[in-house]
Design a protein that fits this description.
elongated, single chain, mainly alpha, 66% helix, 3 strands, three-stranded antiparallel beta sheet
Length: 456
């Protein structure tokens, strides 16, 4: 983009996010300049996409992996024949969707204790297990958190989609501002639709209750969950499992997954930070450019001989300013949310791998206990058999979901970077055409002046 930067005229454009990696930044951009942020982003993006092209990307389950094996890990979800048919239809014929969810119409609620936002969740479905074909309920953020926790409890080794964080970075955007509410609404909408598109999570009973129950019904259902002491016991067991150390017999597949996610997490976090820095620099550039154009208009009032040229420059700057605003909107709507979503996904996947290791660790400890005890062998053998089944189900669920997640991630990343490249091309073409038109008009005026001077 180096040549393009020179053509655009007085207000040099801020850094481009690149177009497929073909453009290159200046060899040594000055520190703090917009171009300084562009090189690391391009390099990090290339490395993230390069992760997808590794030879033999990890062993995954064959296409005939049974969804029954995936579901069998959740004792709270009995599998009916009709449910299995629906799941196979969803796998084999993804275009035949039967569940459509929309999150919209945010409302602010102010009480003596707190202020919060609720969102309308509209569900349309043709599934037989629903009593109606359409539902409308209102949900607040803590209801979404409850759903996510229930899904994680029922399916500890499935990849649950991320929710936007409850708290926001200070100085980024005001809480309860229109921008914040709209950004959260979009994230909540994506969260529910990713669950709806998942071949297993979409049939979770708590998900159905979330979509259909009125507020008082949902509140009553929440109270039926495990109590505080039960949740504390689960936490203590998880901590104790992690303290015991690494897993002895972890399959190589999951070691490779863990290594992949450590690299992916590092790269996607770098991308996220640089993209936010570029957006901040672009906003600063945009604000300065808004002040830059009017100066030329004011100047033209006192320079009669070059007034037309100054007004032309002001007009070009104004058009470039509008083009920059559109590009900023593209970054905030398309690039930043996707990158940050996968930052959250990387944390979720590391958590899933740890939970799988905890299940494996529980089996290893029982095997060790059996080897050290001569009595109660029958009791330990039965427990070990159950744990072996539990580990196998956990492994199968994670392997099947891993392959699906990687495909979605690769598609999202390629689509996002392609979209950014196309937006950059449109931006530079629009600015280039603006300045070329101005130069052409100045050339014509110059020829007219020369002709008038040549006449006697």
């Amino acid at each position: 983009m180096e040549a393009e930067g020179r053509v655009l005229g007085p207000p040099l454009p801020p850094p481009s996010l690149g177009s497929g990696g073909e453009a290159e930044a200046d060899p040594d951009p000055p520190a703090g300049s917009p171009g300084a942020a562009r090189g690391p982003l391009l390099a990090a993006a290339a490395e993230v996409l390069a992760l997808d092209d590794e030879e033999d990307d990890l062993e995954v389950f064959s296409k005939d992996t049974s969804l029954a094996e995936v579901n069998s890990f959740s004792p709270s979800m009995p599998i009916s024949p009709s449910s299995m048919i629906n799941q196979y239809k969803f796998e084999d014929e993804p275009e035949l969707r039967d569940l459509f969810i929309t999150v919209d119409d945010p409302e602010s609620h102010i009480t003596a204790i707190e202020t919060f936002i609720t969102y309308r969740v509209v569900t349309k479905t043709s599934r037989g297990e629903f009593d109606s074909s359409e539902y409308q309920v209102r949900r607040r953020y803590q209801d979404f958190l409850w759903l996510k926790s229930k899904l994680e409890a029922a399916h500890p080794t499935l990849i649950i989609p991320p929710l936007p964080e409850k708290f926001i970075m200070k100085g980024m955007v005001e809480r309860f501002s229109d921008e914040f509410i709209e950004t959260r609404r979009k994230a909540l909408h994506k969260f529910l639709n990713r669950i709806a598109d998942h071949p297993t999570l979409t049939f979770n009973e708590d998900f159905k209750i979330f979509l259909t129950a009125q507020a008082w019904e949902l509140s009553s259902h929440k109270k039926q969950g495990p109590g505080l002491l039960s949740r504390m016991g689960q936490t203590v067991r998880a901590v104790a499992s992690s303290v015991r150390g690494g897993v002895k017999n972890r399959p190589e597949t999951f070691t490779e997954m863990n290594d992949y996610m450590e690299t992916f997490s590092q790269k996607i976090n770098v991308l996220d930070k640089i993209a936010h820095r570029i957006y901040k620099e672009e906003r600063e550039y945009f604000n300065e450019m808004k002040e830059y154009g009017p100066i030329h208009t004011l100047w033209s009032a006192s320079e009669e001989d070059i007034a037309d040229s100054l007004k032309g420059v002001a007009s070009c700057i104004d058009k470039c300013c509008k083009a920059t605003e559109k590009r900023m909107a593209g970054l905030s709507e398309n690039l930043l949310p996707i990158l940050h979503e996968y930052v959250l996904y990387s944390e979720i996947l590391m958590g899933v791998l740890k939970r799988r290791d905890q299940i494996q660790g529980e089996l290893d400890s029982k095997v060790d206990a059996l080897a050290n005890k001569k009595t109660e062998k029958d009791l330990f053998s039965g427990e070990i058999g159950k744990l072996e089944d539990k580990v196998e189900c956990a492994n199968n669920a994670l392997k099947a979901d891993w392959d699906r997640w990687k495909q979605n991630m690769q598609c999202d990343m390629r689509s996002t970077f392609t979209n950014v490249a196309e937006n950059n091309l449109r931006y530079y073409e629009e600015c280039l055409a603006t300045w070329e038109s101005f130069l052409a008009s100045q050339t014509v005026d110059l020829h007219v002046e020369e002709d008038s001077e040549d006449k006697p």
